[in-house]
Amino acid sequence: MKARVTIMLKNGVLDPQGEAIRHALGTLGFSGVEGVRQGKVIELDLAATDAAAAEAEVGRMCEQLLANTVIESWRVEIL
Amino acid sequence: MKARVTIMLKNGVLDPQGEAIRHALGTLGFSGVEGVRQGKVIELDLAATDAAAAEAEVGRMCEQLLANTVIESWRVEIL
């Protein structure tokens, strides 16, 4: 079973990497880009076969390791 | 209009960051994680109102700046 975790900075947390991308896109002539936020995506191959249990387990992984929950929010999708 | 770009290393390209996550999860007692791949997600706020045109423009952004197309694949979703 595959799971995809998407981790983004919370709203209000400064995202200098996203800001740098926005500036670089403007330099390349891409106008009309009003904001950019960069985050991480982590794809997990799991041995589990129960989707609900897998989703709960991946949530624990996010809380303990994958995300910095002070400044980042996370979302799990079971694929 | 919002667009989400997901950028992953192509299959066969070594992903040491994913490997490090897999190892750390094992250390924390999460067994049953068979593989981990880490990628990037970039969320763009666009001024464009035409979804098809926006998707094509974001594709050009990926080719020119966002992804290293030698080792990374990209996917665009218009939200």
Give a concise summary.
Chains A, B: GO terms for molecular function: ATP binding; phosphoribosylformylglycinamidine synthase activity. Chain A is α+β, with helices and mostly antiparallel strands and 79 residues long. Chain A has two helices and three strands, in the order βαβαβ.
Task: Describe the secondary-structure layout.
Two copies of one chain form a homodimer.
Chain A lengths: L1 E8 L6 H12 L5 E14 L4 H16 L5 E7 L1
Antiparallel strand pairs in A: 1-2, 1-3
Strand order of the largest sheet of chain A: 2-1-3
Structural class of chain A: alpha+beta
Low-confidence stretches of chain A: none
- In terms of quaternary structure, what is this? homodimer
Radius of gyration of chain A: 16 Å
Give the helices and strands of chain A as they follow along the chain. Answer: EHEHE
CATH topology (level 3) name of chain A? Mth169, Chain: A
The CATH superfamily of chain A bears the name Phosphoribosylformylglycinamidine synthase subunit PurS
- What percent of residues of chain A are in strands? 35-45%
The largest inter-chain interface, given as chain pair and residues per side, is: A-B, 32 and 32 residues
Tell me the number of structural domains of chain A: 1
Q: Helical percent range of chain A? A: 25-40%
